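2024-03-11 09:14:02 DEBUG pipeline.ingest accepted 1 chain
2024-03-11 09:14:02 DEBUG pipeline.ingest length=180
2024-03-11 09:14:03 DEBUG pipeline.predict start
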Amino acid sequence: MTTQNTKTAMFDIQSLLNPKGGQDLIKSMASMNQRMTAIFIEAGTRSVEIVSNTAKEALSNLGEATQVLENPADYAKVYSKFAQKQMDLMTHTAQDVGEVTQKAGTETKELASEAGEEMSEKVAANAKEVTDKITSASEEMSDKVAANAKEATDKITSAAKDATDKATADKAGSASKKSS
């Protein structure tokens, strides 16, 4: 019967694992992180543009509101108009930033869902591959054990037959010597 040393057993176990499967999983995670970062950068860039334009418009509105006027009663109208413009500007800015945030949230959710499905598929494929290898190795080991057991049984049977034949021959030889 053959024996397997520890080093050979370790190589057999390592051969069951698929390092490419692990690398694929890491690459998928890195790709997802890259795409997620792109979503955040785009949303951040767009939000900064919106806020920058808002600040420019607010300063322009302030410039208009601080003009020197001939009639003191006109100041009330200008300040009222300035307040209304600022309210409209803030409402518009909040809507624009909300749309950017909502878009980023939707894209992030879709990406996370897609990544979850992709990773699940890869993990399942790797698990199937390892299971197939283990099954194949188990079947091969079973065949080897059965072959070794048959070989050992054949040797024992042969040795027992040889011992029986020798004992019979020895008995016959003893009986012939006694009769002579």
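2024-03-11 09:14:41 DEBUG pipeline.report Helices lie at 6-16, 19-65, 72-179.
2024-03-11 09:14:41 DEBUG pipeline.predict end
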